[in-house]
Amino acid sequence: MNKVFSVRDLRFTYPKSEIEAVQGISFDVHEGEVFGLLGPSGAGKSTTQKILTKLFRSYQGTILYNGKDLSDYRNDYYEDIGVGFELPVHFSKLTGLENMQFFAQLYKQRTAIEPLLEQVGLLEDKDRLVATYSKGMKMRLNFVRAMLNKPKVLFLDEVTNGLDPKNARILKDQIRTFKEAGGTVFLSTHLMNDVEELCDRVAFIRGGKIVETSTPRALKIKHGQRSVTVEYYENNHTQAETFDLDGLADNAAFLRLLKEKKIETMHSGETSLDEIFIKVTGVSAHEDA
Amino acid sequence: MRMHNFLKLFKGEMVRLVKYNILQVSFAVTVLWLLVIFLIGKEQAPVFVPLFIFMDAAVMTIMLIGAGLFYEKQENTIKTLMITPSGYAAILSSKLLAAVYLALQSTVIISVFAYFLFDVAVRFVALYGFIIIITLAHASIGYVFAARAKDFNGLIAMVGMYMVLFAFPSIFFALGALPETFDYLLFISPTHASLRLVNYGFAESVPLWQLGLGFLYLVVLTVVLMVFMVAPKYAETAIRE
Ligand SMILES: Nc1ncnc2c1ncn2[C@@H]1O[C@H](COP(=O)(O)OP(=O)(O)OP(=O)(O)O)[C@@H](O)[C@H]1O
Ligand SMILES: [Mg+2]
Fold this sequence. Notes:
Number of strands of chain A: 13
Strand order of the largest sheet of chain A: 6-7-8-3-9-10
Largest sheet of chain B: none
Order of helices and strands of chain B: HHHHHHHHH
CATH architecture of the largest domain in chain A: 3-Layer(aba) Sandwich
Bound molecules: adenosine-5'-triphosphate, magnesium ion
Distance between the termini of chain B: 27 Å
Number of strands of chain B: 0
Number of helices of chain A: 10
Helix content of chain B: over 70%
Structural class of chain B: mainly alpha
Number of domains of chain B: 1
Largest sheet of chain A: 6 strands, mixed
Radius of gyration of chain A: 22 Å
Shape of chain B: globular
Order of helices and strands of chain A: EEEHEEHEHHHEHEHEEHEEHEH
Oligomer: heterodimer
Distance between the termini of chain A: 35 Å
CATH class of the largest domain in chain A: Alpha Beta
Radius of gyration of chain B: 18 Å
């Protein structure tokens, strides 16, 4: 598999800061995959994205982009990548469309703006000043901004943050479409949901260090218990019983339950990614580190 | 530096000067200067007009650049410009050129007004040429200040300090409140160099060596500040949250 990025022992310290925000992380991003960088607030996700997008250039360690050192790339690197920032990045006194037109003209490769706006449901609002947009609209415009130059690699920092489920769905579908067309995605998030739905591989980051790299599925299997819990109704209240997943088909007690009781719920015990997040990083996904 | 991107960036800056009402405010300030000139009358006009033009190109430029940087940081728009294939050189130059445009606009209006209505003698070509380098030098100073200031109030404080340390002595000198010897002392000050150039633009007799040195000083100052202080720190300044 082709490596789009190959990062080794990456370190970065903010000026006037005592501690390293990124403390020697290594990972690869493969062509055509959605790679997730997952971690609690302050873990170093945005910092890592800013280094990979060459906004911060004084890092230690090596970053190869398509096999060549990132620092050897000039401005043409930016023709290849699209960057979705964590916060809105628009001129508030220009309309949504004016913003996009201004940025689009700076690239050699451009895509039509209006279809993009339409895909994220902003076409009707294109002539309104961005100052009058809601947070969710600004975040969707951020995504359009990232897609203007038909990027090969898409960087997305907390794309679905602050979006209602419907709009989050729209963006996730867009990301999937982008991937299906052969694009590579580097996604930073603290939302398990995003990872579970989108990521092919995921690295957990905490305190500037990567603590585990895996696939969402492998993580679930590794950290989950292989069991099933059956809740059933008996004697006027709900009771629960847990069975081993192995040999379940021949488990007489389990089969008897299915036949004789009124089953209310049945859950396999693969731990949810939310629980794994807490287990691996030691912090709850929504709590600040 | 990509030339075609530079032109697009410059056009973008000009559009935003209008959309953010900066051009309008600058024009209003110019009208205010005109009113003041009208009030002080023909007699005093030759003394004060150069000072107004100097203030506009120097102090207003620092404020424009500094405030602009803070505002853009707030809107996060510099970040998203920096991930375009434009390069910092083109981005910074486009902003400098926009500042030059604003200063020239006021200078042209004030100088034409003063020349035709108040009989103030003007060397137009020299004046406009010098205003360009004065604006560039002060735009660089504006960036250096903004990089060091924590917020907009910090910037205002620095501009205040700059006025007291550099601008006021030059203004007092121009008004004849300081002895001749200060002419040499003040020559290490960018404001004094600027003011002497503006004075020449208003047909005052300024020794050629002073003109040459003043001009050179501002060019060197601009290049040194932009190349060694502003550009290398631009990303850091612009992204800092
Ligand atoms: N400009 C800065 N100066 C100094 N330290 C900083 C700066 N920006 C971030 N940091 C520190 O670097 C560390 C990593 O921050 P970063 O923004 O990368 O976290 P994150 O994982 O993106 O968090 P979040 O989920 O809240 O966005 C944090 O400890 C933060 O305090
Ligand atoms: Mg972040």
